[in-house]
Design goal:
Shape: globular
CATH architecture: Alpha-Beta Barrel
Largest sheet: 8 strands, parallel, barrel
Order of helices and strands: EHEEHEHHEHHEHHEEHHHEEHEHEEEH
Mean pLDDT: 93
Strand content: 5-15%
Strand order of the largest sheet: 1-4-5-6-7-9-11-12
CATH class: Alpha Beta
CATH superfamily: Glycosidases
Oligomer: single chain
Number of helices: 14
Radius of gyration: 21 Å
Number of domains: 1
Bound molecules: 6-O-phosphono-beta-D-glucopyranose
Number of strands: 14
Structural class: alpha/beta
Distance between the termini: 22 Å
Helix content: 25-40%
Length: about 475
């Protein structure tokens, strides 16, 4: 048995995002964000609906979500009971600037996060705060075309300045953008880019242009955070889109490498190494992608490199020249099936060893501390007659991934945090469902909005409590 692998101050945590957990989507001055108009259509997929709320025809699950907004005290007490050392959460931009371009912030929104941070502090839980987790104000999309427009940099920085100053002594770890690399895939234009557009205008060039503006915004935010409080640590975050070559044919191996470069290394290369990598420049040339930059942009990027690396990791796929093979499912990216792996009920391939590979790969390149900010299993949890939720499958998934984190640490990788998705059941990003549950804590609510919102601690809750108590030494015991 491998013991005492984790540092004593390792940040064992759990994660959520504001738009998937808070609900209270239109109270206390909050504006509408892009994810507030993703409607549940009843078939496990969502669609973009009119922002004209008077014409709402569909059910919008995140408008209530897990109602964390009204239950945060109870939920944070449960986090404390679980022993969490960290809580990865996000701030809803639209609570602070309802339209995104407002002159002054919304005090009520700021107060809400004051209360959340104070509550976390009470239990010594460290907040790790994502500034933009697929939550940009819809008005910025309609008025300016969101991140397709350079003006976004200033709107974003105004928002950053307000929250950096307000929470100066309450938050130390910041993430500038959730899964910033998701802007490279078509669906990412809405979630990561906040750009509501039709298919024709959803071009690669627009997505990379938007990404460039986010890079500049992120670099400026890093500098700003450090100037407001030198203790601030600001991270870059990607969704690791792991893809193995589907065969050992050199062409497939090369394709997998190119995939890794453009999907996974491109963003951290810019944000941590501080420059556009050669393979990206070549990709732009080959694909006729022209990024508009201002003269000082590259200097700004060089000057504002992130302090740590972070990623989400759920699964792996394969890529190969023969694209006719069976495909996997995923939320922002899909690939070819791997015959050696099993998949979740939603078709996401489960590959714990891929996490060790990812950690080694990323650390080998960036040599900065790593936070794993999302990892988990979406499943249809059933409440038994005795009221318990026996989510052994989730325990098994998480246990195997933690074992691989240990291996990576033994390989020399500096992992400093692990915050599985998700702390509490919340709305799925890709399907808009409640049924696809990830939490340690069950929330009584179904896909159509029925349920009392009552919380039930799942078996995985008690298991994870043991894991944390033993600082990762005990992974087998079930807990209470
Ligand atoms: C990540 C996102 O990509 O995957 C989360 O950051 C999301 O917001 C998570 O919820 C799981 O995906 P899904 O689609 O199953 O909710």
């Amino acid at each position: 048995m491998k013991e005492n692998i984790f540092n004593k101050d390792f940040l064992w945590g759990a994660a959520t995002s504001a738009n998937q957990v808070e609900g209270a989507w239109n109270v206390d001055g909050k504006g509408i964000s892009v994810t507030d108009i993703l409607a549940y259509t009843g078939v496990g997929t969502f669609r973009i609906e009119t922002p004209n709320i008077d014409e709402v025809k569909h059910y919008y699950p995140n408008h209530i979500a897990a109602d964390f907004y009204n239950n945060y005290k109870e939920d944070i007490a449960a986090m404390a009971e679980m022993g969490l050392k960290a809580y990865r959460m996000s701030i809803a931009w639209t609570r602070i600037f309802p339209n995104g371009d407002d002159e002054t912030p919304n005090e009520k929104g700021l107060e809400f996060y004051d209360k959340v941070f104070d509550e976390l502090k009470k239990y010594n839980i460290e907040p790790i705060v994502t500034i933009s987790h697929y939550e940009s104000p819809i008005e910025l999309s309609y008025r300016y075309g969101a991140w397709g427009n350079r003006k976004m940099i200033d709107f974003y920085l105004r928002y950053c300045e307000i929250i950096f100053k307000r929470y100066k002594d309450k938050v130390r770890y910041w993430i500038t953008f959730n899964e910033i690399n998701c802007l490279t895939v078509p669906f990412g234009i809405i979630t990561a880019g906040g750009i509501v557009t039709d298919k024709e205008n959803n071009t690669e060039e627009l997505r990379y242009q938007a990404l460039h503006y986010q890079f500049v915004a992120s670099a400026k935010a890093v500098k700003l955070a450090h100037s407001i409080n030198p203790n601030n640590k600001v991270g870059c975050m990607i969704a690791y889109m792991t893809a193995y070559p589907s065969t050992c044919a050199p062409d497939d191996v090369l394709l997998a490498q190119q995939h890794d470069q453009m999907k996974n290394m491109f963003c951290p290369d810019v944000m941590i190494r501080g420059e556009y990598p050669g393979f990206a420049k070549r990709y732009f040339l080959d694909n006729n992608i022209n990024i508009v930059m201002e003269e000082s942009d590259l200097e700004i990027i060089k000057d504002g490199v992130a302090d740590f690396y972070s990623c989400s990791y759920y699964m792996s796929n394969c890529v190969g020249l023969d694209n006719s093979k069976d495909k996997t499912s995923g939320n922002l990216i899909v690939g070819l099936k791997n015959p050696y792996l099993k998949a979740s009920d939603w078709g996401w391939q489960i590959d714990e060893k891929g996490l060790r590979w990812v950690l080694n790969n990323a650390y080998g390149r960036y040599r900065v501390p790593i936070m794993i900010l999302e990892n988990g299993l979406g499943a249809n949890d059933i409440v038994s007659e005795d009221g318990r939720i026996r989510d052994d499958y989730r325990i098994e998934y998480l246990r195997k991934h933690i074992e691989q984190i240990k291996e990576a640490i033994l390989d020399g990788v500096e992992v400093i945090a692990y915050t599985p998705w998700s702390c509490i059941d919340l709305i799925s990003l890709s399907t808009g469902e409640m049924k696809k549950r990830y939490g340690f804590i069950y929330v009584d609510r179904d896909n159509n909005g029925n349920g009392t919102l009552k919380r039930i601690k799942k078996d995985s809750f008690y298991w994870y409590k043991k894991v944390i108590e033993s600082n990762g030494n005990i992974l087998e015991e079930k807990g209470e």
